[in-house]
Design brief:
The complex is a heterodimer.
Chain A lengths: L1 H31 L1 H6 L1 H11 L4 H25 L6 H39 L2 H7 L4 H39 L4 H11 L2 H29 L4 H31 L1
Helix pairs in contact in A: 1-7, 3-7, 4-5, 4-7, 5-7, 5-8, 5-9, 5-10, 7-9, 9-10
Chain B lengths: L2 H27 L10 E8 L10 E4 L2 E12 L4 E9 L11 E6 L6 E6 L12 E2 L1 E3 L4 H17 L1
Parallel strand pairs in B: 1-7, 2-6, 5-8
Antiparallel strand pairs in B: 1-4, 2-3, 3-4, 5-6
The chains are: A mainly alpha, B alpha/beta.
Chain lengths: 259, 157
Amino acid sequence: MITRVLAQLGGFGVSALSSIGRAHLLILNMLSGLSDIIRRPRLLIDQLYSVGVLTILIIAVAGLFVGMVLGLQGYYILSRFGGETALGLMVAASLVRELGPVLTALLFAGRAGSALTAEIGLMKATEQLSGLEMMAVDPKHRVLSPRFFAGLISVPLLAAMFSCLGIFGGWLVGGGMLGVDQAAFWNGMQGGIDFSDDLVNGFIKSVVFGVVCTWIAIYQGYDCIPTSEGVSRATTRTVVHSSLAVLGLDFVLTALMFG
Amino acid sequence: MNKSKVVEIWVGGFMLAGIVALFWLSMQVSNLGTAYTGDTFHVTANFDNIGGLKTKAPVTMAGVEVGRVTSIVYDPESFRARVGLDIQTAYTGKIPEDTFAKILTAGLLGEQYIGLDPGGAEDPLKEGSEIMITQSALVLEEVIGQFLFSKASEGDK
């Protein structure tokens, strides 16, 4: 009985270790696929469309509404202390530092990450990846690498759009509906947001989240059990693991950068 | 128009929109668009108490920003705070040597900054010179303490 539990624990540990090892070998393979992408930029452009362009709509709508809610809630709290003029700074700081990168990464994992996993998993299930290998084409370079780099490029750009639209939404509610002074709104923002401390750190965050989300999605798709059930489980794991990784890493990065 | 052309246009628009968003954030939202990045000269000022002054706080003359606070260190020799100020070179030779530096607060709860009141001396502030006349930050507890003390001494009479 005890030996069986021990053996199970050991087996779990070994399989977890080997899965971590496979994930890291995969990212090395995908990074080395950069030379293929430079030779055939078309591969990257097609993936940028399906990973980036198709995600713009949800990012834009979510950013606008998050900004409007921030404007509304911030106004209620700040007006209690007579500090409505700090509304612009509050909206912009929370968007640029935290909400922009984090919410973009969560939405990206749900919208694009799950699609990547399902697509690659189905390619594996229908043996398209093996077919490529039969033709002496490395599917890691040809199929996975362009998707990885498309995710890496898209997430920071999407996060910047999210922050912009969020600030615009906060301005619509704060400046338009609630009558906060326009000059105070924008000047407070410019006075309080530092380029290197806030913007660059937010940008670094979104790059890290882009790498992590795309990496998890591609790994789960490439490593799934090639059945319909396996693909569906891998898709679920992508969303769960990406969200947890983003939230956990956000804490670590915030502690490192702003601490 | 064929499909691949449409994809290319969309991707181009996406990249452009993302870069415009990043550019707008840096110029409009952060202090990059308003920050003075030209040459500066360095002066120092010693204060008894700097209150809540922080580095990067503005240095103003008549309310107009002329520089930034770059360093704040405690000087164990004089038991005072030594504050380093970077003043824009446009004002070289235009600020008198006996200028009066005081720590002010923007609004009731706002950030603290340094205000300079020009004196009447002929010689101007130069690179490395020290502002001799300073006034410390207003610390609320001390003001309240003085008020209570004066009230109490009134009661004695």
